[in-house]
Amino acid sequence: MRTWIALLFAVSTFAAEPLVTRDVFYTEAKDKLQALDVHAPAQGEKHPVIVWIHGGGWKKGDKVSLQQKPQALVEKGFVLVSLNYRFISAVTLKDMMGDLAKGVRWVRDHVAEHRGDPERLVIMGHSAGAHLAALLCTDDRYLKAAGVPMNCLKGCVPIDVSAYDIPKRLKDGGDTPAVSYTSVFGESEAQQREFSPVTYVAKDKGIPPFLLLHVASRDSTKTQAHWLASKLHEIGVAARVVAAEGKTHGTISTELGGKDDPPTLELWKFLNEVTPRS
After folding, report:
1. What is the 3-state secondary structure (H, E, C) of the chain?
2. Residues pairing with 224 in the sheet
3. How far apart are CA 44 and CA 10, in angstroms?
4. What is the pLDDT of residues 68-86, one digit of tens each?
């Protein structure tokens, strides 16, 4: 009887409106592009944490563009932290990655104050944010520089991007003009490889499991997702690729969190695997 009462209490708690803390600066600069928002359950503690990186072609975007994700994730017992970061060409990609790593460091240091577990982080992102999420979870230099251990990362969920191996993407072609990549990553293959997540896939680095979501009808994101997954499999890291039927590049993100939404159901399954409840 008490078990059922506890379960009903937990469900009603997580179904409540998220507790939202907005515009927290994660650096001393007090820059709105180095700020984050926290969406947390009203009760409980040590909830697993989703760190969300928005898209926008590495040149625009905002942490508030979340649609139904906060309510859906909080109802499932997650804390959601959405990061802003500076853009090309005001800063370099290294600076951008440094921003994100510092944001994750803030999460490590402070998310317990928002009922989160700093030892159970999942990095997610859409479009350009998917590339940045994958790079953050493979190129460990940025988190190490920020004092964040890789072993606190329990999963990575990049959503619909074709920039996991930039030289390969430019060679293969796709529905996005090449200049969209060269204007960000440079013209030389060496520059492009420096910011390609596949470059950093190696054993014994603490790379977490991946769930790679992509629009089924986009050949370029399909090819890139399977290519990264194959490299992760080679070093023994779990990686699952899911094609989202009937989605566009926009709706695969905007509809995430919806009831009976197929990519969302795959997300819940993955999160249950990588952040199991005690």
Report:
1. CHHHHHHHHHHHHHCCCCEEEEEEECCCCCCHHHEEEEEECCCCCCEEEEEEECCCCCCCCCCCCCCCHHHHHHHCCCEEEEECCCCCCCCCHHHHHHHHHHHHHHHHHHHHHHCEEEEEEEEEEECHHHHHHHHHCCCCHHHHHCCCCHHHEEEEEEECCCCCCHHHHHHHCCCCCCHHHHHHHCCCHHHHHHCCHHHHCCCCCCCCCEEEEEECCCHHHHHHHHHHHHHHHHCCCCEEEEEECCCCCCHHHHCCCCCCCHHHHHHHHHHHHHCCCC
2. none
3. 8
4. 999 999 999 999 999 999 9
**Cβ–Cβ under 8 Å, residues 152 and 109:** no
Contacts 24+ apart (CB under 8 A), 188-195: 192/166, 192/167, 193/166, 193/167, 195/93, 195/135, 195/166
Q: Quickly state the pLDDT bin for 13 (edges 50, 70, 90).
A: very low
Tokens 């990061």 correspond to 83
With a pLDDT cut of 90, the percent of the chain lying above it is: 93
Q: What's this model's pTM, rounded to 2 decimal places?
A: 0.94
State the Cα–Cα distance between residues 119 and 129, nearest whole angstrom: 22
Higher pLDDT: 17 or 219? It is 219
Segment 176-183 mean pLDDT = 95
- Among residues 175, 173, 274, 179, the alpha carbon closest in space to that of 215 is found at 175
- What is the predicted pLDDT for the residue at 8? 37
pLDDT classification of 278: cutoffs 50, 70, 90: low
Q: What is the largest CA-CA distance in the chain?
A: 65
Average pLDDT value for residue range 125-148: 98
> In this structure, are residues 152 and 118 in contact, taking their beta carbons and an 8 Å threshold?
yes
